[in-house]
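User: Before I run my own analysis I want an independent prediction to cross-check against. Here's the chain; please return only the structure tokens and, at the end, one sentence I can use as a sanity check.
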Amino acid sequence: MSQLHRAQKGSRHLLMGNEAIVRGALEAGVNVAAGYPGTPSSEIIETLAELATELNLYVEWSVNEKVALEVAAAASFAGLNALAVMKQPGLNVAADFLMQLSATGTRGPMVLIAADDPGALSSVNEGESRPYAKLMEIPLLEPGDFQEAMDMTRWAFELSGAIGNVVLLRTVTRLSHASGNVVFHELPERESVAQFQYAAGGGPLLSLPVKARHEQQQEKLRQAVALFEDSPFNTYSGPDNPEALIITSSICTLYSREAVEILGLTERVGILKLGTTWPLPNKLVERHLARADKILIVEEVRPFLEDEIKALAAESAARIGIKSFYGKRQGLMSSVGEMNPDKVVQALSHVLGLPLPNTESPYEKRVTEIAIEGAPNREGTFCAGCPHRASFWSINTALSMDNRGGFVCGDIGCYSLAATPAGFTTIKTLHSMGSGTGIASGFGKLGQFGMDQPAIAVCGDSTFFHSVLPPLINAIHNQSNLILVVLDNDGTAMTGFQPHPGSPVNAMGGGVVKVDIPAICRALGAEVVLGDPFDVEGTRRTFLKMLERTGVQVLVLRQPCALSPEKKGKKAYDMAVDEQACLGASCGCNRLCTRVFSCPGLVWDEKANHSRIDEVMCTGCGVCASICPVGAIGMKEFA
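Assistant: Structure tokens:
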């Protein structure tokens, strides 16, 4: 269990950014936290869940991000300190309610944490949350280091309480998952009582009348800006009259400081670090703009800060003069991918007309040489024993045998790899969570235009509850021709096996009602079949029969993830290759098991000219024995 709640004021600790955020929330007296799993945000809810019983918190993994925001809002409406947590794509899901919530305002302090992923290190896009602050007209805070991750989280609750509205705090992957030293403050006493006052002293929480609510909302922003002007999270370092001024925020603060150190420009370049990035503290920024004529803006990913500062500079030109701005709009820095110190070094050297330093280390030089020489290409793949590989093998084979050009509309999860050779390029469309089912339901209505290709959708069990139910209901109601394959691996596997409504426990480990996916689908009116993806032949036969029928059908393929706690380190079968039977490229299959099926537990032995089992990697699922055309792979059940 986390010890974040035991350490005393003034003690110093090495914390991951997400842990620092948790400590900040605890120091603010958080009562309720809700979220949906998504890297890089997941550890925040997980850590709070560990502390829930001892600290009398309520913590949940909600069915999706919109519901998480609504659960947190209910706590705020009842006067409690509330926290909602999600990664940036989830903010898209929550946006509908957030638009209304920002209009009605909050009662108890409420903070929304959005974890962005510049570079899409663990996401299908690198969209960012900052524009939502402007769209929703709520304050935006961005911690620049680990101490600020804690301190700013605590202050975000104070700010929310002061203005009566939700506050958006943006973190990024390199802050969430890196670690740094943090000095703790005092934890509050916990004696909170929830009460929703909707009569005298409270009033109803309605977004109507719109004009009056909107005026109140903008007044809250003005209150926030007044506080931003003197915020300790906006800092300046450098000479009084620098040759160039860097304006930056978030983790780019560390990159900027490092770049200035590398170039030896601490006496020539100033750094204005903004922690309150929307609305801008105009007076503060204007004072610092007056310091220098050359302004370099360093941020991830899009030029959000750059655009706001340029607009302010245009309005203030009579007072501060004309400035030269450098950033993403000029192409000096890319508007895609992560920032790093080297990129800032290059940009700053350009701004000041300096020669680029030779920062390439011998290690980096050798890595470049190896890449040029031809390093082996290691594509992403499913884990050894992953049920998804078996599922897509059967689906892909059945579609080929059906021979009508059927295709699969994909979804977000580990199984997104099925768009690559790892899943036999079975997935043909891939967008947002739940969109595979919505798209497939649309394809399933195109028969009147001559389309006879079967449309299949795939989703995971967590995604089914998150956002597949509405398009499934839509398909059933509109009598679409659709096969939905639910890849049920018993948890939110991609982000660490967090529970979902189909699990018998909640985030805090307590027993809850397990919602049955097949029962839901049957109740909606769909034809439902259950299967085991490791039964390759049975799954293929079942799928071929489903391809012959019309209407909405659901195939639930159940097999726990190979890395799940219940299966990790356990083998169902002892696998072995018959070296005499395996002829490799000479048997006609042309090394089907290692070249096409490509399970990491199977290895091609070039010297011996046959396949072999990697005893360390193999999970003993037995699927490879099913796909070998000559029966060269045997399986023996463990006693």
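Sanity check: The radius of gyration is 28 Å.
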